[in-house]
Amino acid sequence: MSTTTLGTESPAPRSIRIQDPHLAVTFPRVVRSEWIKLRSVRSTVITLLASAVVVVGFGAVAAAVQTGSITPAGGGRGGQGFGSDPTGISLAGVNLAQLIVAIVGVLLVTSEYSTGSIRGTLSAVPRRWPMVLAKVVVLGAVTFVVQLVAVFIAFFAGQSILGSKGVTLGDNGVLAAVIGAAVFLTGTALLGVALGFLLRSTASGIAVAVGAFFLLPGILSLFSTSIQDDIRPYLPSSAGTSLTSVTHTAEYLNYWPALALLAGYVVVLTGGALLRMMRSDAT
Amino acid sequence: MIEVVNLSKRYGDTLAVDALEFTVRPGIVTGFLGPNGAGKSTTMRMIMGLDRPTTGHALVNGKPLAEHRAPMHEVGALLEAKGVHPGRTARDHLLGLAATTGISTKRVDEVLELVGITEVARKRAGAFSLGMGQRLGIAAALLGDPAVVMLDEPVNGLDPEGVRWIRYLLQDLASEGRTVFVSSHLMNEMAVTAEHLIIVGRGKLIADTSLADFTAASARNSVLVRTDRQATLRSLLVGDGVSVTEDGDGSLEVTGVTPREIGERAAAAGIALHELTPIRASLEDAFMELTGDSVQYHGSPVHNHPAAHQHEEQAA
Questions:
Q1: Residue B281 has what pLDDT?
Q2: Interface test with B, best of A10, A14, A23 (most B CBs within 10 A)
């Protein structure tokens, strides 16, 4: 049989369906959708809370080590590993928390690809970009709020443990460093989101995130001092060092340039994520 | 209404969809038939705007899906696989989708009721059986009260009760004036559900026909006759609307005359018949015949014995 086309028209269908003018995709609605999705997966919520616990807990432990009330295994008087800046000591947990929030960001996106739910998401929002930006807005806001609370608790707990050696929020650069810690963790989570969209795979997303935040500084130390000095300030993790420091040295960028650097990373990678999302097939 | 115009999709060297052109009309169930790998799912993904066409375009209710204000109100789709985060409850999954378009929580509970999973709505989807997952997927498709409902192999993995349920659901949706487009690789399933068929093979359109026309064209009722005196019997039977073809193994396939008549005439002429079997070609056979050349992955070679109805699903 060759291709046959039926010419007869079916009777006009009786339509009982009414167009509902209230139904429309809007950006705030897509943001609400992403908020529902984020809070309805228990592991995401638990991991985000875990990152806050790490920030508070590690800060307190570092402060206790500094005062000598906790002695690290292997003896010694302790404290050296965290430097002598009381603010930095109380924010010691940021270093580990950055990895956790980056993974939350990656998973928020790659779980949609691994479960296939991306098809439903993009069927509802076929213009795609609102969904990408909504994920950025929701995870950005949630991470910032959670981490802002965490870093302040970590700061106050740390300073009260340090006692007379501690600082107050009113001291020069301290408030900026504490808020900077929350900002840095937020930026890190958003880099995770962008990596998730760019790589679409949990394994490679996490691998790249770990590489960028933990391995690059180590790899860099293999190079000559002059190369290290040229590159080190611009690593993503160095932005974190700058943003959480009260005093700034020539080794790292100052506070505002570091903030611009972090924002630059987020904007460029998110732009890449949008481009990939708009151009390629959904799955 | 779905309009597909010169739609092609190339993956590397493979042309998965090849210049497809068809229209799916409202008010009836249209079956999208073809062997596995014929490009049905790819075509549906392109209609949903998920895959970018290499050439051509697909319109839903007159526009590309992305240009509609409320895409979920235009088309609801169940595409292959579950597509639900296993850690999320069924209800939260639907609430997340509903929120994008301003669909009410009341509607979410309505569709949960409609597909019969209200009792497990607050359970995590990871614990769902295949059938419950399929029902959740259909709930998601119906969430936006869509004008077009598109389902990719909806009966896959369902128990007989579930299959029946889908069948009635599709007919109800069509009778409400919606466009219903359902893919399957099983002709028999479509024969009881669809009113119109779009048949594809290797990405190409093979037929765009009503089920009635397809059935009429493929109704090929014949009788298998075995005898030692073939030539004599043949000369007794041929003429006015009766055709006799010789099969390779020495039997005759006779069309246009009843088995009773053949037996009577043979007896009158003193011819001994060794076999006299009525053969009714199924729609599945007709479908297989039509798509035979376009099946991409052959199982064992299909031996084309006319009486062999057993290999109905062999190429599936």
A1: 67
A2: A23
Interface confidence (ipTM) of the complex: 0.88
Q: Helix (H) and strand (E) counts for chain A? A: 12, 0
Element (H, E) at B32: strand B29-33
Residues 6+ apart with CB under 8 A from A40: B88, B89, B92, B93, B95, B96
The dihedral over CA atoms of B262, B267, B271, B272, expressed in degrees to the nearest 10, equals 90
| Residue A135, H or E segment | helix A129-162
Q: Which of residues 235-274 of B touch A (CB under 8 A)?
A: none
Mean pLDDT across A215-241: 90
| B310 to chain A, closest Cα gap in Å | 23
Give this prediction's pTM: 0.84
Q: pLDDT tens-digit profile of A149-207? A: 999 999 999 999 998 888 999 998 999 999 999 999 999 999 999 999 999 999 999 99
Tell if the CB–CB gap between B100 and A124 is shorter than 8 Å: yes
Q: Which of A14, A19, A124 sits opposite B97 (nearest CB)?
A: A124
A3, A131, A32, A203: which is closest to B103 by C-alpha? A32
